[in-house]
TrEMBL record:
Lineage of source species: Bacteria, Bacillati, Actinomycetota, Actinomycetes, Micromonosporales
Annotated protein name in UniProt: Dihydrofolate reductase family protein
InterPro entries: DHFR-like_dom_sf, RibDG_C, Riboflavin_Biosynth_HTPR
Domain Bacterial bifunctional deaminase-reductase C-terminal: 2-187
Length: 196
């Protein structure tokens, strides 16, 4: 059985919307896009490199997959993350996409997220890494399918924007595996689902 690991950049008040660019995600009139890059440093880069080195296949919701395909899929900058993202097998969960040909090595999982991802998780193969895709993560978490989280908690509050858990999440316990503070005040914490 495959493991599902989620990596999520978030603010102290739980906002996960529009991390990278002002135009990344303006749904709901969100005007704080691009809040994350000023907190990047070498410590964060090293910690993310560790996670990328262990990553297996990638799992996305439609919106994040489309955004990543536009940014990473066209990257020719020699960045090792670009090469890794493009080379990796990518699964995109969607009820509306017709195909996943817009980004190499992508496979469309059409239908209900919990059903399709649950079936994928039961197959043999590399573990699955989710980066972003908050709506997908909420559904997978509610179904008990997320095995661990890496949360990059940034030292700011935004007051508005989509949050990781916008509605109460079901009861689930996790144990702290590691924590690292960056030079710019970001806490990188790793939690694993506790054995019941």
């Amino acid at each position: 059985m495959r493991k599902i690991s989620v990596t999520m950049f978030m603010t102290l008040d739980g906002v996960v919307q529009g991390l990278g660019r002002p135009d990344e995600d303006t749904r709901g009139g969100f005007t704080h896009g691009g809040w994350g890059p000023r907190f990047n440093d070498d410590v964060m880069g090293q910690e993310l490199s560790k996670g990328m080195a262990q990553a297996g296949d990638l799992l996305f919701g439609r919106r994040t997959w489309q955004d990543f395909a536009n940014v990473w899929g066209r990257a020719t900058d020699g960045n090792p993350f670009s090469a890794l993202m493009n080379k990796a097998t990518k699964y995109v969960v969607s009820r509306t996409l017709d195909d996943a040909g817009a980004w190499e090595n992508s496979t469309l999982l059409r239908g209900d997220a919990v059903e399709t991802v649950s079936a994928l998780k039961e197959t043999d193969g590399p573990d699955l890494a989710v980066n972003g895709s908050a709506a997908l993560v909420r559904s997978l978490h509610a179904a008990g399918l997320v095995d661990d989280y890496t949360l990059l908690i940034h030292p700011l509050t935004l007051g508005t924007g989509a949050r990781l858990f916008e509605h109460p999440a079901p009861l689930a316990e996790f144990e702290l595996i590691s924590s690292v503070a960056t030079t710019k005040g970001v806490l990188i914490v790793r939690y694993r689902r506790a054995e019941s």
